[in-house]
Amino acid sequence: MGSQEEERLLDKSLLEHGTLNNEILGPYTGDVSVDIHGNPVLRHNTGNWRACTFILGTECCEFMAFTGIGINLVIYLTKILHEGHASAARSITTWQGTCYLTPLLGAVLADAYWGRYWTIAVFSTIYFIGMGALTLSASVSAFKPPSCV
């Protein structure tokens, strides 16, 4: 048990110093990747199609949701929420601008702090919560404003 712990600490220190390169790589990825516990990542446990299916599925659902909301948002804002056309256009422009600029924030968070998979998971969760709130506001009568007289 102690030898495995010593070997793991040695691998971790080699990884931190950058000497764990392709020649002495062994089973590790060699790109300074670490798992959630801070240990070097094994090559056979990471990446490839496992991560790809998660990302492709998330992006496909996100694209369909973005397109569906974008098409119906004008009607929803003007007919259901009784906004004027100028106010609805301003709301839609703000929504689209936010949708196109938040990937820059996500890129900074992914590169500097969380990593790509945690960032995708966090922002997908936020997106899902927003979609749920929009669905509730459209379907539950308590969340709808009173009709105009």
Number of domains: 2
| Cα-based radius of gyration, to the nearest Å | 23 Å
The biggest beta sheet reads: none
Mean model confidence by pLDDT: 79
Number of helices: 4
Shape: elongated
Residue ranges: pLDDT <50 for 5 or more in a row? none
Strand content: under 5%
Note the run of SSEs as H and E: HHHH
- Quote the distance from N terminus to C terminus: 77 Å
Percentage of helical residues? Answer: 55-70%
How many strands? 0
Structural class: mainly alpha
Properties at a glance:
single chain; 149 residues; mainly alpha; 2 domains; 69% helix; 0% strand; transmembrane helix; membrane; MFS_trans_sf; transmembrane; transmembrane transporter activity
Describe the structure.
This protein folds into 2 domains: 2-44, no CATH class; 50-143, no CATH class. Helix 3 (85-114) runs antiparallel to helix 4. It is an all-alpha fold and 149 residues long. The chain is elongated, with a radius of gyration of 23 Å. The longest helix has 33 residues, at 48-80. The termini are far apart. It is built from 4 helices and no strands. Helix content is 69%, strand content 0%. Keywords: Membrane, Transmembrane, Transmembrane helix. This is Major facilitator superfamily (MFS) profile domain-containing protein.
Topology at a glance:
Elements: H1 2-17, H2 48-80, H3 85-114, H4 116-139
